[in-house]
Amino acid sequence: MLDVLRRIVQEVNSARTLEAALSTMVRRIRKAMRTDVCSFYLFDVNQQRLVLNDTIGLHSRAVGQVSLRLGEGLVGLVGQREEPLNLEDAPSHPLFRYFEETGEERYSSFLGVPIIHQRRMLGVLVVQQQDKRRFDEGDEAFLVTMAAQLAGVLAHALATGGLSRTNRGDGQAMFTGVATSPGMVIGEALVIAPPADLDNVPDLIPTDVDYEIQRLKQAIYRVRDEIRAAGERLASRISAQELALFEVYQEMLSEAALGQEVEKRIREGQWAPGALADVVRRHVQYLERVDDNYLRERAADIRDLGRRVLAHLQEETPQTPDTFAERTVLVGDEISVATLGEVPRDKLAGLVSVRGSSTSHVAIIARAMDIPAVLGMVDLPLPRLNGAKVVLDGHRGRLFVRPSADIESHYRSLIAEEDALSAVLEHEQDLPSETPDGYAMPLMVNTGLAVDAVASLKPRISGVGLYRTEVPFMITERFPGEQEQVRLYRDQLESFAPLPVVMRTLDIGGDKDLPYFPIDEANPFLGWRGIRVTLDHPEVLMVQLRAMLKASEGLDNLQVLLPMVTNVDEVDDALRLLDRALQEIAEEGVSVPRPKVGVMLEVPATLYQLAPLAERVDFFSVGSNDLTQYLLAVDRNNPRVAELYDACHPAVLAALDRLAKDSAALQMPVSLCGELAGDPAGALLLMGMGFDALSMNAPSLPRVRAAIRRVPLAAAQTLVSETLALESPAKVRAHLATRLGEWQLAHLLPPRD
After folding, report:
1. Cα gap 462→499, rounded to integer Å
2. SS3 letters for 676-735?
């Protein structure tokens, strides 16, 4: 049965249209389960009804005509309950509803399962049989699995406008991911396909068919020449049988084979790269299903040839500034920083990526550039989004594809409100971050990029609360040398002097890999990362510490922060290396005072070791993002559990409150850097708890400053007491919104639904 399932999924995913996919699905399921009927009902959101969309076994005239409300009939019951329904004698069920046009009066057995995508019920899949039988557990499991597969197909069809039969041409779809950089934008999607990736070639209608055919032929000729040359180079080193493979490649590339099929697809209305991808995928999927081992192995050959030809086609289709819309939303499987740099800054309006996380390099740059970004959008159907109008909501991690007029109008209003608010808040950014009752709340900034834009904030901040030293490591092809690091760190320290600059030692691992130092682990967030890596590679840490110390000469504003600390032994080891670095540079004639050293509190174990840690270091810095995900056991970069990740979870807030009080008792300064600090409501809570400083991304500063200047410390402390008594994140968020509304600060919060 598993093999049957795999084959059906392959056929469905290779279908060119939704109608073809559904037709394949219902026919193959009926055959696999040996039933008389298989039907698919699509949930029409506008009508709030389940509509018969395809069937094999019922009368075809019923398609598009039969519909049921949720809870109406057996199909409506499955949709309402969102759980399978397995009946031996369906007509005897009290909710059985008979539709004469279907001809289903002769069927007794009924098995229906809901189709659910990201908690949204999209439709119902049904099988029926004339004989009375209760479908067994294997049948039910099979149909549930098929429904789960169909959910992805439907999500793709929503994005491509393929549901016109019931959506009246609306075609709007919403996809969710990890909210990475706040903000909202209405723009045009530009899909960036990775080089020679056959699965991510966008569909485009050719403007010049003859030109597309000509460049296809040229690409094929070039690949044939490459293969011929490769065969000649290896002729004396491989056997005649192996050499014959090169002849097979040449035959596959002949105009009578691959070239002819691709040309036909171009004439049907597809540009050369898309036509090539279509033909290659079809051949590969067919070959992978056959029983002959030799033919199955040829699938890899076809795929390889396709990539080679595609690589040459893509060389001739570079993206120039003329190809970018005025508000370009860059969409891709994985967007690199290099790709980001190819888009004119004045046209780049947003970022969306299937892969990536809130701490990836491109995410850090997006926040620094104040560009809305949503990453980790795993169900995004890339090939058919190019050129589509989209609404990107970086606050809630949403992408609306081909938005309805109401959605577009709603977001235009929200964007106008945000722009007006930014203009108002700008007027008070040089004023002190001080409450109405005279309490000064230091605000610091997170950095990691060049200091150009951030350094202009110097009059408005109390220093750099977190300088991510890993960013320079991520944009090179090797570990940067000591002198390179000295120059980078000196720029930061000089630009912000005499304000303190907290430099975190290299924090890689988890979701932050270096291309030249990959870390491949089954569970990277609980693996080799942060201080664990650098202590295992003291040669890397020593170079970094020496560079930091040398860069601080004559400035005395360096502070060093140790990430991902789990126990005091790690701190002791790191401090010994710091002392050794001080001694080594002194021997070179560089004399600097020992900088203050802090521990990043992000592993829950450290919350129970504050006293021994306080004996060793000078300050604490809470990494609220990691601490939250570890306390809640939620990967913050996984969109499937993103709703569970919430820094306002009562357990997280209780831990932070206790941490602040324990740190005060130890007379240990404690700051917090993370998303919670950049949330106006979160910042008020942290101030009320007693945190000594808050560090955030630069775009968050105006709203946080505005909140602090309008709420007395006593009111913030009361807010903490009220909030800690609540029992769920939803109640916490609702209470915070209510309080900020009473203080006339609701406009500082991200827009709500």
Report:
1. 6
2. CCCCHHHHHHHHHHCCCEEEECHHHHHHHHHHHCCCCHHHHHHHHHHHHCCCCHHHHHHH
Opening angle at CA 646, ends 641 and 648, nearest 5: 160
**Domain 209-316: which CATH number of 1.25.40.10, 3.40.50.920, 1.10.274.10, 3.90.1150.10:** 1.10.274.10
**552-566 pLDDT per residue, tens:** 999 999 999 999 999
Amino acid 354: pLDDT:
80
pLDDT score recorded for residue 163: 47
Looking at residue 312, its amino acid is H
- Catalytic residue from among 38, 117, 312, 673: 673
Q: Is residue 673 annotated as a catalytic residue, yes or no?
A: yes
Rg, C-alpha atoms of the chain:
30
The tokens of 638 are what? 């996984």
The residue to which tokens 């080679």 are assigned: 308
Nearest to 374 by CA among 349, 403, 342, 345: 349
Please, what is the Cα angle at 432 between 430 and 435, to 5 degrees?
140
Place of tokens 């009939």: 73
At residue 240, the pLDDT reads 55
Q: Which two tokens stand for residue 340?
A: 């980001």
Q: Which among 283, 361, 395, 649 is annotated as catalytic?
A: 361
The residue behind tokens 């530009």 is 190
The residue whose two tokens read 């007509």 is 91
* The two structure tokens encoding residue 618: 């000078």
Domain ranges of the chain: 1-160, 173-193+323-410, 209-316, 437-748
* Fold category of 437-748 in CATH: TIM Barrel (3.20.20)
How does DSSP classify residue 316? T
Handedness of CA 478, 482, 487, 491 (dihedral sign): positive
Distance CA 377, CA 180 (A): 11
Cis peptide preceding 442, ω within 30 of 0: no
Q: Answer yes or no: same fold for 1-160 and 173-193+323-410.
A: no
pLDDT at 317: 45
Dihedral angle over CA of 324, 329, 330, 331, nearest 10: -130
Per-residue pLDDT tens digits for 84-115: 999 999 999 999 988 888 877 778 999 999 99
Give tens-digit pLDDT for 469-528. 887 776 666 788 899 999 989 989 999 999 999 999 998 766 566 666 666 666 767 788
Residue 277 CA to residue 175 CA, distance in Å, equals 25
CB atoms within 10 A of CB 98: 9
CATH class of 173-193+323-410: alpha beta
3-state secondary structure at position 605: helix
If we measure between CA atoms, which residue out of 355, 344, 350 comes closest to residue 382? 355
Q: What is the mean pLDDT of the chain?
A: 84
Please state the three-class secondary structure of 545-561 as a single string: HHHHHHHCCCCCCEEEE
Looking only at the bridges linking them, the beta strands covering 49-56 and 67-69 are: antiparallel
C-alpha span between 472 and 561 (Å, rounded): 17
Which among 602, 597, 604, 601 has a CA at the least distance from the CA of 619?
597
Helix H, strand E, coil C: the string for 133-195 is CCCCHHHHHHHHHHHHHHHHHHHHHHHHCCCHHHHCCCCCEEEECEEEECCEEEEEEEEECCC
Q: How confident is the model at residue 675 (pLDDT cuts 50, 70, 90)?
A: confident
Which fold does the domain 1-160 belong to in CATH? Answer: Beta-Lactamase (3.30.450)
Quick check: is 747 catalytic?
A: no
At residue 424, the 3 state secondary structure works out as helix
d(CA 404, CA 122): 18
SS3 call for 44: strand
CA pair distance 748, 149, nearest whole angstrom: 41
